[in-house]
Amino acid sequence: MNYKNNYIMPSCFSFFMAMISSCVFFPGFMSFDSFYQYGQALGLEPLTDVHPPIMSYIWRALCVVTKSPGTLLFFDQIIYWLAILLFACAVSRRSWRRVIMIGCLGFWPPLYITSLHLWADAGMMAFLALTVACLAVQITDERKRWLVMAGVALFVAASLRHNAITGVIPLMCYIAWRFARNFPAPVPACMKILASLFLVLVLGQKALSIGVEHVPQLGTVLVWDLTAISVAENKDVIPDYVPKTPGPDFVGRLRSHWDANTRVPSAAESSPDLTPAEVRQQWTPVQEKRLIKDWLKAIIHDPGAYAAHRMHVAKTLLGLTHEVYLPYFYIGIDTPNAYGIDFKFHKLVYKIMHSVFDKEKKWIIYKVWIYALIELYLLSFYLYRSLVLHKTGYFGALPAITVLSGIMIELPLFILAPAAHFRYSVWLVFSTLLALILTVSERYMRKTSDAA
């Protein structure tokens, strides 16, 4: 078989899977967050930075083709399967092996189900995977265009979620090094390129925020922490300037709405972000700065209650509790609604999805702690091989960089996550699989390269 023909079957298979997935699960799963962003895309809601605006911009452009929320599902599925296609082509030579890898990786349940949601998390996951895929291809095909494509994908990923930046940093450093490694003075060149990339990222984010209303958001996490302390200690530690519902037994009402996995239920009694409109009316940057001080005071005064709360969040994110907190599978947005859309699935599709999805979230592959352990092992393996054995694999530092990206995007969540949703950890899951495949396939790739 001609070498170029090895791309035909995997490409057709990937495109077919993207189209089938989009059609079967059309218009995709939607939560209130994505529902509100769709309103922004339609121009029916003001643009704010509660959620990064790039998703609404992309959605708005897609709605030019056809006015349907499902356009974003097609877009995300194309990026998702394209990333997996490029990655499979980078780590395998034979067509049939590529198809098998595309199928196994693409339909890995935690990844696939997340990709069917109209969430920024799904887009971020797909574009980060596309970044790694382009970098893997560039190991063999050293043309700089792959680095440029990786940089563009990384910029989009960084723009889709506020917490994406920590996972972007290792990959950005690697892109800078790949650009600079053949320079006469590679280290200074790498530093200059890295500074330029950061400048482009910052200026790009500023450009995306033009005309977008800034809404202080850290307070939502801080109030959730203060609510946890209030419930645990049976006393109100939430400052009076935070909006609260009137009435007696405030702490009792907090407890009745309390959910240790998400801040949303307790927001019914006390929260600066009951709706985006209330944020604009009731929450100011000055109050947020003041709240940080009061938050620190509460933690110092009741460290045990805070530690127990955040420990529960970390354990739930890692899958160490009795059940994975996976609040996906939205049966549809209420109709009629302000945007005039019908978001109900076909009854047969819904019945199948409900049965399968509800059972599979109990599988061990949803335990994030397993992926975290694998990532720590892969990172240790790379450090031992490079520092002690002075060897590098076929893909060099890319597996370790991919692992670092997954770890660095996960760690801040233990303190800053506004909920313990599994979807927040999906890049750690994806990065583990990518890094593991890169590491395992290195011997095969080196052998086939030597044979060629």
Q: What does it look like?
A:
Mean pLDDT is 86; it is low at 272-281. The protein has two domains: 3-211 and 364-451, no CATH class; 218-318, no CATH class. The two termini are 14 Å apart. With 452 residues, the protein is an all-alpha fold. It is built from 21 helices and no strands. The longest helix has 23 residues, at 186-208. Helix 8 packs antiparallel against helix 9 (165-180), helix 11 packs parallel to helix 14 (285-301) and helix 14 crosses helix 15. It has helices at 8-24, 32-41, 54-65, 70-91, 95-106, 109-115, 120-140, 145-160, 165-180, 186-208, 218-233, 250-257, 276-282, 285-301, 303-318, 347-360, 368-388, 398-410, 413-416, 426-440, 442-451.
Question: What is the strand content?
Answer: under 5%
Q: Decide which structural class fits the backbone.
A: mainly alpha
Major pleated sheet: none
Mean pLDDT: 86
- Taken in chain order, the helices and strands follow as HHHHHHHHHHHHHHHHHHHHH
**Total helical segments:** 21
Q: What is the CA-based Rg, rounded?
A: 23 Å
Distance between the termini: 14 Å
Low-confidence stretches: 272-281
Overall body shape: globular
Helix content: 55-70%
Integer count of domains: 2
Strand tally is 0
Transmembrane segments: 12-32, 72-92, 99-116, 122-139, 146-177, 183-204, 363-384, 396-417, 424-441
Protein name: Glycosyltransferase RgtA/B/C/D-like domain-containing protein
Organism: Komagataeibacter xylinus
Keywords: Membrane, Transmembrane, Transmembrane helix
